[in-house]
């Protein structure tokens, strides 16, 4: 029987480490480039800003859910 | 890191960590987590007008992740959620309008605040008592020879839910996913309306009112109440986010950063519900309404509406 520590903790820690790399890359690229454009929208086109806000939140949530699910499956396959 | 929309410097690692903690709470209890996120964002240095709107935007994303996980676990009653959305949005609008009206009248805020504190404290005490009594009953049953520990939810106090389900005010709905044969649509809307009212009055999602109300007033199993509440929060908080964004109260960049931590936390919280029975989740939930009561007390003492 596989110990709980190896079965649960190890995949989780690897998942967190991989996830941190993706998130860091995401901050440095996407948010950096979007910042100025979103700032402009916020100041001058509030209706568009509201629409873009909800779209970004929903798309990112779906993307992150897919990403974390994929990382977890990948880590588990490697450890088995 | 400088966030140009809110014109403020905030630490991304702290925002991610905050999102992570709130994500666990949200996924496990089916709450938005504003009682924690609001004061924390303010403490991190975010201007107050951005706190409520940004928090709502982050709640939407976190609830999508947690609700998807709960859906995979079979914890969402879509029919119930869609009916509740109507009541929540109506209640939220009335709550916001009511608080504006009450502001104009002397001492009414204090009265409503005091009543809210009593309601929330009573709810915390009741949830703690009921879940403890249910756990004790279950332990006695397990000790009896031949008794088995069922996976279905158990309640020490289900009198109100049974009485509510007997009210046949048309239209009457059947909720097979929640194991409810028939319940009046108006009962569901009323429960959601009260949750929305608290949401409008206190800010945030007021899940600490809605989740136990679904369990004790409608008889929804705890796991389904958590998943359904999260699904419902996506729509009601999404509506609130758009409203606040139009008024310039949302920094979407901050919300997106928080969401990266919340995505992991929400999945952990949602998965954790598999390992706890309904009464144990309710027992752990009991302190949350007390936090809501403390927020109201803080508002009354400082004269600041959260």
Supply the key terms.
heterodimer; A: 80 residues; mainly alpha; elongated; B: 306 residues; two-stranded antiparallel ribbon; 4 strands; 4% strand
Describe this structure in words.
- The complex is a heterodimer of chains A (80) and B (306).
- Chain A is mostly helical.
- Chain A has one domain.
- Chain A is built from two helices and no strands.
- In chain A, helix 1 runs antiparallel to helix 2.
- The longest helix of chain A has 41 residues.
- In chain B, the strands form two sheets. In chain B, strands 1-2 form a two-stranded antiparallel sheet. A two-stranded antiparallel ribbon of chain B has the order 3-4.
- In chain B, helix 2 packs across helix 3, helix 6 crosses helix 8 and helix 8 packs antiparallel against helix 9.
- The longest helix of chain B is centred in the middle third of the chain and has 36 residues.
- Chain B has 306 residues and is mostly helical.
- Chain B has one domain.
- At the A-B interface, helix 1 and helix 2 of A face helix 3, helix 9 and helix 10 of B.
Gist of the model:
The complex is a heterodimer of chains A (80) and B (306). Chain A has 80 residues and is mostly helical.
Radius of gyration of chain A: 18 Å
How many structural units, i.e. domains of chain B?
Answer: 1
Give the helix proportion of chain B (percent range): over 70%
Strand content of chain A: under 5%
Quaternary structure type = heterodimer
Q: Class by helix and strand content of chain B?
A: mainly alpha
The ordered H/E elements of chain A are HH
Summarize the largest interface: chains and residue counts. Answer: A-B, 31 and 31 residues
Q: Give the tally of β-strands of chain A.
A: 0
Sheet with most strands of chain B: 2 strands, antiparallel
**How much strand content do the residues of chain B show?**
under 5%
What is the 3D form of chain B? globular
Q: How many helical stretches of chain B? A: 12
Q: N- to C-terminal separation of chain B?
A: 26 Å
Number of helical elements of chain A: 2
Q: What ranges of chain B have pLDDT less than 50 throughout 5 or more consecutive residues? A: 146-151
Morphology call of chain A: elongated
């Amino acid at each position: 029987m596989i110990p709980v520590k190896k079965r649960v903790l190890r995949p989780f820690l690897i998942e967190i480490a991989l996830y941190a790399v993706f998130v860091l890359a995401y901050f440095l690229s996407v948010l950096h480039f979007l910042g100025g454009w979103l700032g402009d929208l916020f100041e001058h086109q509030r209706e568009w800003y509201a629409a873009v806000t909800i779209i970004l939140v929903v798309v990112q949530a779906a993307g992150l859910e897919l990403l974390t699910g994929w990382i977890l499956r990948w880590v588990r396959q490697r450890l088995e | 890191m400088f966030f140009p929309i809110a014109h403020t410097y905030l630490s991304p690692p702290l925002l991610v960590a905050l999102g992570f903690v709130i994500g666990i709470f949200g996924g496990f209890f089916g709450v938005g987590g504003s009682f924690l996120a609001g004061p924390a964002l303010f403490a991190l240095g975010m201007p107050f007008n951005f706190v409520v709107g940004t928090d709502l935007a982050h709640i939407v994303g976190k609830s999508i992740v947690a609700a998807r996980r709960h859906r995979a676990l079979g914890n969402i009653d879509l029919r119930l959620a869609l009916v509740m959305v109507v009541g929540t949005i109506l209640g939220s609008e009335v709550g916001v309008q009511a608080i504006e009206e009450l502001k104009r009248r002397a001492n009414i805020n204090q009265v409503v605040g005091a009543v809210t504190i009593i309601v929330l404290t009573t709810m915390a005490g009741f949830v703690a008592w009921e879940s403890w009594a249910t756990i004790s009953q279950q332990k006695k049953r397990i000790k009896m020879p031949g008794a088995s520990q069922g996976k279905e939810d158990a309640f020490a106090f289900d009198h109100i839910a049974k009485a509510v389900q007997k009210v046949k005010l048309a239209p009457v709905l059947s909720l097979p996913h929640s194991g409810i044969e028939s319940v009046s649509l108006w009962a569901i809307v009323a429960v959601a309306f009260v949750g929305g009212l608290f949401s409008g009055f206190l800010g945030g999602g007021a899940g600490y009112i809605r989740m136990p109300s679904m369990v004790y007033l409608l008889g929804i199993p705890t796991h389904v109440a958590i998943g359904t509440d999260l699904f419902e929060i996506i729509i009601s908080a999404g509506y609130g986010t758009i409203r606040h964004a139009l008024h310039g109260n949302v920094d979407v960049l901050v919300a997106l950063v928080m969401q990266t931590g919340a995505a992991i936390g929400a999945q952990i919280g949602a998965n954790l519900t598999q390992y706890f029975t309904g009464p144990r989740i309710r027992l752990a939930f009991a302190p949350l309404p007390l936090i809501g009561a403390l927020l109201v007390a803080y508002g009354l003492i400082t004269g600041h509406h959260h």
